[in-house]
Amino acid sequence: MQRLSVSALLAASMLALAACSSKPAAELPHAPAVSTSLPSQRGDFGPPQGEPIQAVLTSPPNVPPPIHRNYPAKVIVELEVVEKEMPISEGVSYTFWTFGGTVPGSFIRVRQGDTVEFHLKNAPDSKMPHNIDLHGVTGPGGGAASSFTAPGHESQFTFKALNQGIYVYHCATAPVGMHIANGMYGLILVEPPEGLSPVDHEYYVMQGDFYTTGKYREKGHQPFDMEKAIDEHPTYVLFNGKEGAITGDNALAAKTNETVRLFVGNGGPNLVSSFHVIGEIFDKVQPEGGTHPQENVQTTLIPAGGAAIVEFHTDVPGSYVLVDHSIFRAFNKGALGILKVDGPEDKLVYSGKEVDSVYLGDRSEPNLKAVSVAAQAHAAGTQTKEEQVAAGKQLFTGTCSVCHQDNGEGLANVFPPLAKSDYLAADPQRAISVVTHGLSGKLTVNGHEYDSVMPPMAQLTDDEVANILTYVLNTWGNPGGRITKEDVARERAKPAPANAHKEEH
Amino acid sequence: MARRPPRWLRLAGWLCLPLMATGGMPVALAADERYAALPGGEFASVLPADGKAAPAQVAPFHLRTTPVTNAEFLAFVTAHPQWQRGRVAGVLADAGYLSHWVGPTALGAAALPQQPVTRVSWFAAQAYCETEGARLPTWYEWEYAAAADATRSDARADPAWRERVLRWYGRPSNTALPAVGGEANVYGVRDLNGLVWEWVDDFNALLVGVDSRDQDGADKLRFCGAGAISMQEKENYATLMRVAMLSALKAANTTNNLGFRCAKPL
Question: In Å, how far is A62's CA from the nearest CA of chain B?
């Protein structure tokens, strides 16, 4: 054993990465002399009382109910590791390693001072050994050293939840980055003894970055790519482990005049999140899960392996978009979610569009030259379809492409595609009304259902609408054809159809 | 490389001896076609012999060309009833031992004859190998054999070799295991990567590390630093995941994807 005992030391070093995890302030080497003021010591309320309690675990985006308990208890948590194939995007599957069968893993909620008896089960079907490092644990490895579990086995360890706050947990088995990249993270909330303030909704959202050998949205089963992970070049950046996990029918929901609390974590493994909700201002943020709140925050930074508690009041109905405001991640890698707020308008807080007038600017600038050419040709009665297409292409960019994308493919579950669109092909004339009157509610395009809102593009002239639609009809495999200025004028004069955008201008 | 198992295993072996009848199975010593000869030599293991960079020395040995199958293991437990499910002592095999077989001496639909046997403990695997006049391979022997592909004795620098190893990790194991008999490597050995985990004789040498990892200041830095360096070697991490798996095991453990093959000296 002479040789191997040395190499065993190296093996030990590879398996001891959990040792790197940092622990809360309780372990600060130069703690003040008045040690009773340390949060972790204030959090020890003595031995557990009463009968042991089985913890309620929930799948994202749900959060277990608040704990209305005024004594420290023994809480039993049973968490199963499951390796399973699930969709990461539409038509794309990935083998996730999960805590509880979901990414992120089950949400755990305990009270400060509770004694937590933790059972980590590794499913018999698993190929890999796994363990768990909970950042809410005070002790070596956050539990990792005590929970290293082979497939088909179970480990148990117990800890006292000394510090309140929202904490990330994750697998710390080598290679740690790969286990995290495959989805092995989640959140544990340690409630303060008095509980959190009551709110109308609590939701669980966790960002993660994913690395596949294929490109973004490349179909089929995609394996993990270690090289991209080391280079920190993610293929996907996602909320709750799947593109569209919280959009469309899965959108988070609230009504106006309610309070929403989001527990937002970031599993990483690599990226730091600039978490932002488009159209909302966070009334209160507990940054990094700490005790002291910050107020009136637009964007809050969530470190990899960190979490925040975010609260806001809903005043105006509509769809609020959750993004990582490192914004290419939102629109090109999937970091997008929706909070749908229903209720009556409050025009005093937000008016909607009040003025719609034409502002031409300088139409001779080079990037809109084709538009001028088309307009002159129309006036002279010599306009060709090609001129219309060229003008429409330039108008499309910057107006339509914001949602429908430059390639006309839209955004899965949010904005329907215009490319090879069966909805468009079925009735090209109908498209005129969609642009001039807007469209809201459910519709099916190329077999996928969408439920969103397109406002009327009233700022576009008849001429511009005709050019844009002619461009769209003659691009991306659409059926062709031509829409004239007169077609648009006729359609615009008609009353808006029932499914037009409700907020009439 | 005739190395001896650690002291506690030798002790365990003595304790088990009365249970292990070694007769009853034909032991072909001369030219056993189930085994292939491997030349051995100097080998750059992912676990350097001196903890830094020194290569391992692998003595010439014979290795089973395929993992032991359900059919072969059924013959073994039939001849040696003390290794049957329900009879084996709890300290030698945990509750999952052969639990996918329909009965103690019957395979059934979930365990086809030509599939590799899984859900066997280290003790049971070692006892089986003794009936073939063999033992479990050492980690170095196993790793050395698995580094080969169809044309090269060390294909590990080839991304295709690594891909094949990693593809198996990236697949969930919710479908039936294939039969043994995959593509042969340059030595004529099959199924080392991509079918099942395999016990090695000295798996517990890796276990030592997990049990004894303490986390005081001085060690912490070294552990984290060393771990980071090792894991940056793309050539190594595919193999190191197997080390991680083996180090999670105790000798009585069984898992759905863990089988074994045997080795013996030339």
Answer: 26
